[in-house]
Amino acid sequence: MKRRLLLLVVAAFLCCNMNAQQDSVPAPARKKVGVVLSGGGAKGMAHIGVLKVLERAGIPIDYIAGTSMGSIIGGLYAIGYNANSLDSMVRKQDWSYVITDKEDLRNQSLTDRRKQYTYVFSTGLSFGKNKTGEGGLIKGKNLAELFGQLCTGYTDSLDFSKDLKIPFACVATNIIDNSEVDFHSGRLPQAMRASMAIPAAFAPVRLGDMVLTDGGMKNNYPADLAKEMGADVIIGVTVQGDPKTADEIKGTLGVLNQIIDINCKNKLEENIAMTDLHMRVNTTGYNTASFSAAAVDTLIRRGEEEAMRHYDELMALKKGLNLPEGFIPPRYHPLRPKIMTERQRVKDYMYENMTPKDERFLREKFHLRKNDSIDAKLQQQLTTSMRVDLFYKSAECRLLPDDDGVFVVLSAGERKSAQANVGLRFDTEEYAAVLLGLELPLKKSSVPMNTELTVRLGKRIMARGELTAHPRSFTRPSLNYTFRHNDIDFYVGGDRAYSILYNQFQAEIVPISNDFRNFNFQVGLRWNYMHYRNKLESEKSTNVTLTNGHYYSYRARLDYNSEDDWYFPTRGTRFKAEYAYLTDNLIKLEDKAGLSDISASWRRSFSFGNRFTLQPMVYGRMLLGKAVPFIFANTIGGDWFSHYVEQQMPFAGVGNVEFVADQFIAAQVQGQYRFGSNHYVFLRLAGAQQAEKLKEIFDHTTLFGVQAAYYYKTMFGPLGATFGYSNRTKEPYFYLNLGYEF
Predict the structure, then answer these.
(1) Structure pTM?
(2) Closest CA to 221 of 33, 54, 56, 47
(3) What is the rounded distance in angstroms from the CA atom of residue 70 to the CA atom of residue 79?
(4) Quick one: which of 392, 393, 399, 406 has its CA closest to 359?
């Protein structure tokens, strides 16, 4: 009995000891997951779709490594943007603005906005022995500004492994020695910008003695970085298409793209070999520049579809990560709205690379004070003013968070030396025309000033010089001089009545010019000298004597424009009114009272759904006086105001410059329908009344016109054709146009 009891005690002891030993065996450590995102320009939008599925599957992400677009998506994810917030962010961006060097239209004056819809190409120029050039067609200032805004709170020098929510690394290429540069620390927006600096397209990032371009040239799929960071399991995404054949490589751009694609294969095979789950998204039909809304939507969807095809593999991989029971990966706040929408208290403003004069300019113009507040709108206004008013090539407004507010750092780059602009157009009336512009900032003047030289080449020749001051107040007084050499056919009732060749010399001083976002008010004095070279008259024309002469006019102009697009608006209002008092000696005109010139136009856009827009418009011009010089008489025709001559008004169904009576009022209604992303169909109906005396304006036959048009919105301006008819000309007309109007 005692022996049995002893055996039971020993057995129980051994059992407890074994259980204790089993309980003391540590659980296997959780494996760390690294996500690798390749470069690919716009095609990299597919990464967002893949990240959505990883979140849905509950896959933890412990490290992120990326190149080019992969570095942008990965870097933003690493600071707290989840997949849904990235989806929202990329969809709401105006990529046609972001990937250019254009100024932000939302904060520009009407004058500056008009330039954006006139020129198709702009670039900075450098002169002298020390000129460096940017090294790319696009300097990338808008990209850098966007990255700075999205990375608010992470713009200072950081350790990417410790200071971000998820450890992160990205790759750039140093073209000085063709070496790979891996960013594990530094300023995050700068690292992302360097990683995606596509050679020849975007200017490189100069950092110390390095000149950094797209990391895809050395390591387009940096799985080795994720492994070095500590990843046990690697999930990777590539967006490259199939290799091109010889027949598919065409033109200079095709050759350049092929060179980049070949270089992007460096280390690719060995990096894919170390990847546990590799996903290759089908991006057929899209390229590095496919940033349209439809393309972004499709690419994100294709990324999600590709990841869903691997969903079972993802779940199997997840089981092998040794995750604790009930494990839920951290998901961060979408869009971090505090940074994007709320005003934040400013503890102080700090200035980098600016003169005391420029610092004072910003303080006084924007009333910057300590303990004030700042939001995203003021950030944008400050950076725009630094570039537009103070002529810096690049500008940055960084927010450095502190315990009870932020420090605002206003950092300026190099000064602009000159800006060259090029506009191109073709139409069936004048054929080809070229507009060349050169802007030269006067850096050493006590008040910031800008000179602008513009030349138009074609059937109508124009040369213009303008000097504009940028004082601290929101006004821009200017002085300009313009020469025009015009050869224009004027019509009456559809028949050509006059062909006039003349030179026009014009100077104008505008002491009052309040130039705001949607509003421009100007008061000035203009001088014109008309020199007639030749006049041909038809049998139906009246005998008009053209005499060379000087004219002086006092003018006040009001221009308001809140439309969301210059050529294809879907909402907003455009209103313009002008009064001019024309004389030939500053007091009278032909020994009589001067001529009062009153003109106005109003247009409003009403959207029905997201494709159809209705646009009613009323406009007119009244000439009140005893004498009306022939060259200042009312004219109508074409699609735009002031296209051939300053007083020209559009009218549906009339293609040429048609003379009308001194009193003219008109109304037009236009239906605009968009199909696809950039295709537009228009139908315009117009009616008008005219008379030599205002009291008789409704006593004459009503003019009417109808017009149908198709236009395609291209990067070079509208491309389309117009067909119309009016009872004024009594014959149809056809008009073809490519390019912005000038």
Answers:
(1) 0.69
(2) 47
(3) 14
(4) 392
